[in-house]
Amino acid sequence: MVKHHEVILSAPRDLADGGAPAILQRSDEDFIEAVLAGLRDAGGRVALRASLAQPASVASGSDSRARGSKASGRDLFNTLRGASRKLGLAGGRVAAVPAASAQDATARLEEIRRAAAGEQVLKLFQPIQRQFHLAVMEARCDTPGEPRIDPQRVDGAGLVIRRLARDAGGRELKQGWMRSGDSLRGWARVSAAADGAASGNRHDPAALRRLDRPGTGQPVLDDEVRLLLAAQEDALLDEAVVPMFLAPPDVCAAAGATLFYGLVPTTSSEKAEGGAPRFDEQAFGAASSDFKAHLVGPLRGLADSLPRPGRSLTPDLAAIAGNPADSDQSSMKRLLLLLRQLAVEFDAFGDHAEGEALQTLLDGIALPLADAAGKPIPGSTPAGVFLAAASRILLDGESISPAPTIPAAWPGLDGTRSAALAGALSACLQRRFDAVSGVAGRFDDPAARYVLRAFVRLKPEGHCPQRTVWGDYSPPFVIAPWYEGGGAPPVQVPLPDPSDREMLKKLVPNVAFTVPASLQNLLTGDPLDLMEGKKPADSGLKLGWICSFNIPIITICAFIVLNIFLSLFDLFFRWMMFIKICIPFPKKGGGE
Fold first, then answer.
1. Cβ within 8 Å of residue 516, ≥6 positions away
2. DSSP H/E element including 521
């Protein structure tokens, strides 16, 4: 009877140790061809060690593109910065070391714990940082001499990326990016069978392959086995697989090894169904102190005064909030804050069940009326009706006829009514949260740690069925946020010289905007009136406009404005020495 011999998956020899694929970091455009060329011989594999992904504590990205013998821009920058420090210039300032926060201290302790345990956490970058990661492995037979496996025996290869998490007891577990049929489940716990050791693990990430077991020749027994397999929690879950490709035959022949490579994804547009973050009702629910403290006084049940009681409510009254000389400035500010909180945060006046329930509660609050002199008179108006109209008038600038009368004051509420109002507000906020929170993506958690694991599928041999062979887990890795520097040189955008009149004549408009009449009327108004918040009078013309501009000129304007604001904000953030680096270079000219 033919029997399978064991297969070993590991990083290519001379490149890295261990049973996990080697993770390379490259920034050259033809990095796959360059890596394959390096894998051909031992010397090339040794040279590829410089491209191995680095631990998170030291990783800053690198430029793996071919370089000449001239000094790099980084060397020039370091020289200039050193000279600046000697001269005492701003570019050579040394930033003060900020005091470590409690979160930083906790993170540092976690790093020390991992280092003491010998755990290495790598840092990978995203394509937007112009850094790419390639997983490389070899497969060989576990027989004397460890010869390479025959590529004809391989049915396919791939790798899975799993997220590290902890259960309620603090024990570490792994989660896979799962799909169930046409439904994307997102991160789900990996079963013990899938998370088994490399030796003897026959789990396959594809559900159909797991259920397709060889028959025993006994139909009744085979049916029972299929039922048992289908009853497992993850029986119908397919784990996302990144394909790994067999290196070209000439590369494998030159290396004397069966090599595989695959691109490690560090970004994804996939969104899990039902994967939106949940509203933390315990931390910010109706009964929490933080939620109550966030509400304005009237919504907490406190009595409050209203501006201009007894007057008709018109849009121009909103200007009271900006007039320090007006005695009602403070009460108008509080009213506007109340309206913004109801309309914007809670969407209290929207057409939905939660808003209608809140409106009903607000209508149960009777606001006493006032005469033209502001003195209370018999009668009242429902708070919900008044607030809905006030929102349209003061926030949206609408004129309502007949204009509502401003009540005398907002009354205080008892504990029962205050609690009911807080509950209705919380329900509206939860609905608002569900609408704007979005759905978590595959790599959206900036603090998440991941591992990857590679496998090969071997074809049947004789009476032996097909099987899946796994390698070891890679060291944990994190994914750098998109805004962190990846080490690749910055993209240079040449700007035209605005003082060159001949050059400006060549900069013909190359982009056009279709401008509606109302916006054109606003743009042609007096800039001083715009600065004072005055809307220009309607010219009566209802003509649309097509305005053409030159994109480089727009870029120059944006560049000038950017530098102005960077200088202003540098007074607070002291960030100029980090985010803006200007170095001189000689004017380019022709040589002899």
1. 544
2. helix 517-523
